[in-house]
Amino acid sequence: MKKEYEEDTDRICSSERESSKRESSEGEGGERESSEKEGGGRDRSGDDVGKDRSVGNSNGKDGCEKEGGGRVGGRKKSGTSRGGLTIVEITQIGIMAGIVYAASAFLQIPIPTVIGNTRLHMGNVICLLAGMLLGAFRGGLAAGIGSMLFDLTNPAYIASAPFTFLFKFAMAWVCGGIINHHTDNYIKDHCRAKRRRTSLRMRYLLGGAAGSITYIVCYLTKNFVEHRFVLGLPMEAVALMTAQKALVSSVNGVIACVAAVPLGLALRARKAGR
């Protein structure tokens, strides 16, 4: 009986040990699974956060790109572009070119001579004024385009239209380049010294004179080369024709300076006073 009792107790103890081992192993497995689940959840949450961040960054970039595109589009719509002319500047050039054409076509005095016809006109006044008001490049375009249009609409001057564009462009370009060199702020402040105002007037006089002389030299050189080397006229006839054109061109240049300088100063002062 004692043996059987001892055997039964040994069996119960062994079964209890095995059950405890199983429970401990199952508990460890559950802990492992829970830890793996928690780790997976953390990894997933980290991935989700990373995705959210990447999405946020991409959205931010897209937003910046859209905003940048909107800004560029706004600039284009407003007519301001880098390295080009704005709509306002093109309009100014067109208006001034029309005034140059009108002054050349209608404000003129034809002078018939034995050698050829010449004329006194107010076109050079507006050409200088274009350089004074619009600057070298835009003023040159306005002067060249307006004068070229006059030549293209007149059969007597249609062959010289390209040369006229270049010469009148150079006229306004030289005038505008001299005047607008560090003179933009001279008349904005009315408390400037008298020396500054005198310097501004001198720049206008020098600009007008230099522009007129530039045109006269180009025009006379072109006529001399054309009549002497292209048409093959005698030197005496070419010299007489050149002297006549030089006289009329000089008168036009003096008239242009006398009329354009005070007009340019008055319009510039009015513009600065706004």
Strand content: under 5%
Topology, number of strands: 2
Count of distinct structural domains: 2
Query: Could you say which overall geometry the principal axes of the C-alpha atoms support?
Result: elongated
CATH class of the largest domain: Mainly Alpha
Derived structural class: mainly alpha
How confident overall, as mean pLDDT? 77
Amino- and carboxy-terminal Cα gap: 128 Å
The strands making up the biggest β-sheet line up spatially as 1-2
Question: Which residues sit in consecutive blocks of at least 5 with pLDDT less than 50?
Answer: 39-47, 53-61, 63-78, 186-191
Number of helices: 7
In a nutshell, what does this entry contain?
This protein is mainly α and 274 residues long.
